[in-house]
Amino acid sequence: MEQVFEQKLMQAAQAVEEQVDAELNRLEKLTEEDVEKFRAQRLESMKQEHKKRQEWLANGHGEYEDLPGEKELFDITKKSERIVCHFYRDSTMRCKIVDKHLEILARKHIETKFVKLNVDRAPFITERLHIKTLPTIALLIDNIVKDKIIGFTDLGNHDEFSTEILEWRLGRGGAIDYKGDLKSPPDDNEKKKTINLFGKKPKTIRNGMGGDDDDDDD
Fold it and tell me: Which CATH superfamily does the domain covering 63-177 fall into?
């Protein structure tokens, strides 16, 4: 058994060595013209990335914005390709949990516009999107609602979900450029960036549009 393991280990090491040799050979064959061409392509790519970043910042990306009403959301869809919109109500305490996480993610993922909209100021779009549970996070891509995160069901169904879990879920919906593994969520037990505004143990929740009915176990 030990000999089989050593043999497989040697085979794996040999395969890596062959890949390294192949890459070195490829680099050795590059002409000065090839290097200059690669450098020019990389420089142009960096310029485009910088330009896009400046456009995002000019459109208010990097901040978590509370919109005055529906019109402002429609205006944003004309400028930003990807939008994360949190539909909330002041009396629903779990919306404040979402706020804390989205404030962090807005600063991290400037490729996406992060906003919040009070449902009492947006009756038309709230009805049109069939928003019946708060909080609800709508993921808009190219002016189309591609996905919705309703309540905390997709986030562990408790108050103390981590920012990383929400980030992963947004990545699954295509709303942000997620760098991790989209196939499986990060381990909540290892992530410590949890936010609990209530100081209570995690609990399953049911929440509707009625306000603070999801915080009824005092």
Answer: Glutaredoxin (3.40.30.10)
